[in-house]
Amino acid sequence: MLKRVFPHPLLSLVLLVVWLGLVNKVTPGNILLGAILGVVVPFMTQPYWPERPKIGRPLRVIEYVFIVLWDIVVANFQVAAIILFKRNKNIHSQWVTVPLDLTSPEAITVLAGTITMTPGTVSAMLSADSAAILVHCLHTDDPDAVRDEIKRRYEWRLKEIFQ
Amino acid sequence: MELVTEILVSFFLILAGLFGLVGSFGLIKLKDTMQRLHAPTKATTLGVGGVLIASILYFLLVEGGFSFHELLITLFLFLTAPISANFIAKTYIQARVSEDDVPATGTDFGWSVYDDPPLIEDERERGQDA
Fold first, then answer.
1. A35, A38, B65, B130: most buried, per Cβ within 10 A?
2. Is A120's CB within 8 Å of B104's CB?
């Protein structure tokens, strides 16, 4: 019963917090409205998201967020340097196949997003059985190193968080 | 407004402007669509981020209040930027890239644009094996 009313408790909480942030004022009326959104939206979207992702280690999420934020800052400088100082013919763009150990769709989504936001890589598509992800690399001479970096730095941590 | 605050806010605004400029320049300079995707997904993240940090600092140090709006913009940006980039990449692959141009998947199935997903019965079998 409780599960039917709150199919995604975490989503409900996030919706409430985002609503309070949007109106930027914590009043009883706003909390009520945010709570209504937090119940109605997960309930109505439930058919499209039947599974419940498990987050095994919430503290690891914080660590992951800071690592990704730091990498994004570094990525910005690296990509800016490539754009500004490299001639077009010296930019070696490559496709890289990264085999996935992750199985939950939520974890793969987070990984794909992370790959797009970080150093010189954009995630392009999954294999039909979602066991590998195709990554486009702006400039690399060593595709294997890129693959290992993604697996070691991000996928391993996501595996700990989601399993 | 104190001098230090002014310098801090201006620093982040200028940094943001520079990265926005580099991102836009990349869009013109780079050769193909996949390369151009890198410019807006990255160089501009710090561009928008710089403006947001400047805004947070201004409201915190000058107006003396804290606004959640900047944090929410960051959240929405992080949710939408990779998804729109992925849509563009997939559309481009569908239209312009042939299956021979991309590396093999290394699994029994091809890339999702070219190959059908496994049947549900196959999926169940795989789940039982694992």
1. A38
2. no
